[in-house]
Every structure is written in C-alpha cells, then in structure tokens.
Recover the amino acids of this structure.
C-alpha cells in the first residue's frame, strides 16, 4: 500500500512537472504596441519576453508605411515543438518631428530682398512634402540683427522650431555682396573674390581679380608637408610639380593652349586667366601632370588619403559637366580637413560645386 501511494505521488509530480513546463513555454508582448511611421521595425521589437520556446518570426518585418492599426501574425514554437500562432495588434503612429537643415546666420545688405527659405531642407519620417515657414519680424530696410525661426510641421501635428539670425548690413559700409546658393549656403563676394561658407571658390563662374594671391598659403604648405611625410612612410614620393600661378602666368599658358588646340578644347583643361584655381594659393599639381598619372600607386594613395590632410581631388572622374574640367588625377585643393572629409564622401568624391550648390560656367 505504501509503495502504491509513492508511485501515485511520483506520477502526480511528473504530471505536474510536465504541466508546468508546458505552461512555462511563453511569448510575451510589450504593453505599448506603438511603432513609428516609416521606421524599420521587426517582430522582435514588439516582444518583451520569450520563455522556453522560440519566436520563429522574430526577424519578420512589420509594415510601418502607413498610419493606423496593423495585425501581425507571430509564430512561436513551444518547448514541446508545437507551433502556436498569435495575432497581435500594433498601432503605427507618427510622433516624430521634422528636422530642418539650415544656416545659423544669413547675411544680407540693406534693401536687398532675400528668400530666407532658399536652400532650407526639411526631412521627416512621413513621406509627405513639408514646407518651412519663417516666424519673427525683421525689416530688410533697417540695419540690424534679427532673431528669427524656421518652423516645419507634419500632418500629424509634430512640429520643429529652429532659431537663426538674419544680419542686415549697411550697403555702404563694405564692398561685400552676399548671396545664398541653391543648397542654402551663404556666399560673399569680397574684393572680387568669392567665399562660400568661408571657403574661397575659384571656378568658371567665380573668378579672381588679377592682383589676387602671391604664393601657396602657409596652411596649404604645412598640410602638404604632413601629407608628403605620410606618403613617404608608405614608400611613395609625392611632390609639387606646379603650385601657385600668377594671373600673368595664366595669361601666357592659356594663350599658348588656345593657339595650339583652339579655344573650345583649351577651355576643358586650362582655365582662363583669373579663373585658375592655381591663382588661389590653395592648389597644386603633383608629380606627373598628365593622364599617365591615373592609376599609379601615388594617384591611388592620394585619392584615398589626401582628405585626411585637408585636400580634395578637385576634378574627379565623370564630373566634367559639374566642375567644368576633365578628370585631373594630379590636381589637389586645400579646403581643410572637415570639408575635405565631407567631399571625400567615403571614396565617392563630391565636388565643391555639388556640395555648395553652385555651377562652373563661363559667363561669355
Ligand atoms: Zn592644376
């Protein structure tokens, strides 16, 4: 009798154990099942706990491309290998505010009408077109500094407000004229030279006065020496073959090319006087100034590393319609490390023209 009781007790315990295990196989879902519109979301994002089992569809994408309630089918394999299916309701909502890309300061001269939203970009997780409005008061006919705001709102009511400063300068106080590029950067023409966001620009649209420049700038030379030493450590000899060129020198060069190849051809590889970047003091050609340089270890090294020292490959391959010049694997321009890194663009070189939103075309 005692033996029997023991057996029954054991059996009961076993059944209880199996039952507990059975019940312990669980998948739990989060309490707040809200997902953000157009954000990449997976089933695992809505699960809070998996116990003694496997969430089979954890890497299945949940469609968040439209607002409202969605039904998600979740497959769960229990401890005993059974597959259970759950229907889970999730809500796709838009709680994210738009982001505004803008310039902190815009400068203009008194009396000159200005489009403050030009080049300002708004991004949002909803795919709707969102416009930006300007809030605050200013008087374009009155010299001063005005604090204004950009405001962007999406259709779900999320809004973003960003402060910026509008400076209205007296037109007689300087010989500077201001403009805004198509990408929203501030440009200034100062004593005949054009600077965009602080960077001197020389191309077919933006020339230099004939008196501009006197040699490579100190920062260019210093940065080049660093680049040169780094290349040397990699066993490569990089040297400047042609650095600063005066306006007069460019007159001679350009006229010779025109005499040899004609104006149209000369314009694709040689700049007109006043439009050569070599006059800027930030530019030089290295080693072999010809297409023979393409693909050499030195050219490859420069293309991959020059940005670390603040230089850019000024006329990349396939960008002739943008820069106005054919591919020049030997021509480099100093712009500083920050901008150079942006233009390097992980190896897919961007041009100054693309980045700032400007063209490079002779006016005549
Ligand atoms: Zn050059």
């Amino acid at each position: 009798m005692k033996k029997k009781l023991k057996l029954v007790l054991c059996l009961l315990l076993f059944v209880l154990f199996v039952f507990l295990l059975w019940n312990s196989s669980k998948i739990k879902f989060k309490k707040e099942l809200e997902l953000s519109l157009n954000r990449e979301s997976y089933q695992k994002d809505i699960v809070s706990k998996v116990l003694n089992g496997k969430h089979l569809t954890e890497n299945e994408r949940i469609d968040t491309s439209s607002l409202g309630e969605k039904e998600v089918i979740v497959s769960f394999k229990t401890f005993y290998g059974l597959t259970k299916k759950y229907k889970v309701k999730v809500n796709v909502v838009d709680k994210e505010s738009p982001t505004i890309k803008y310039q902190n300061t815009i400068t203009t001269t008194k009396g000159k009408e200005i489009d403050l939203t030009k080049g300002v970009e708004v991004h949002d997780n909803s795919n709707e077109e969102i416009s930006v409005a300007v809030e605050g008061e200013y008087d374009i006919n009155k010299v001063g500094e005005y604090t204004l705001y950009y405001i962007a709102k999406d259709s779900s009511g999320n809004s973003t407000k960003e402060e910026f400063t509008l400076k209205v300068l007296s037109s007689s106080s300087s010989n500077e004229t201001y403009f805004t590029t198509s990408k929203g950067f501030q440009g200034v023409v100062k004593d005949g030279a054009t600077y965009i966001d602080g960077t001197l620009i020389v191309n077919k649209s933006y020339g230099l006065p004939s008196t501009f420049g006197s040699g490579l700038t100190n920062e260019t030379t210093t940065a080049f020496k660093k680049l040169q030493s780094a290349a040397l450590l990699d066993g490569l000899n990089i040297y400047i073959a042609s650095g600063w060129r005066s306006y007069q020198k460019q007159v001679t060069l350009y006229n010779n090319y025109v005499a040899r190849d004609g104006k149209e051809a000369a314009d694709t590889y040689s700049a007109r006087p006043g439009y050569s970047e070599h006059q800027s003091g930030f530019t030089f050609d290295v080693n072999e100034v010809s297409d023979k340089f393409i693909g050499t270890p030195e050219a490859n090294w420069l293309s991959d590393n020059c940005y670390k020292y603040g230089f850019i490959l000024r006329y990349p391959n396939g960008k002739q319609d943008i820069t106005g010049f054919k591919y020049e694997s030997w021509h480099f321009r100093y712009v500083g490390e920050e901008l150079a890194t942006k233009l390097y663009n992980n190896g897919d070189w961007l041009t100054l023209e693309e980045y700032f939103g400007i063209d490079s075309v002779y006016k005549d």
In short: The longest strand covers residues 83-93. The CA atoms of residues 73 and 283 lie 61 Å apart. The mean pLDDT is 92.
